[in-house]
Amino acid sequence: MYGLYRFTKKDGKPKLWIIFMLGSFYGLLIEVLQFALPTNRSPEAFDLLADVLGSLAAIILLRYLFNSLSKKNKEPAN
User: How many structural domains does the chain have?
Assistant: First the structure.
């Protein structure tokens, strides 16, 4: 994730919605491939929902981590 974070960072602020969109698109792509390829796997809407929710959880966690790290970096040294 750090690589995506560096890729999406602009003006000192991360663009977390890009990470969410890429994660969701990847989940959709996997479901489409499961439908199109003969792999004995079937696409399911709940799998796509789990992928989207996982991407959402990732950006919520990243936002929390970035905020806590930026607050820690702004604290004066003793």
Answer: 1
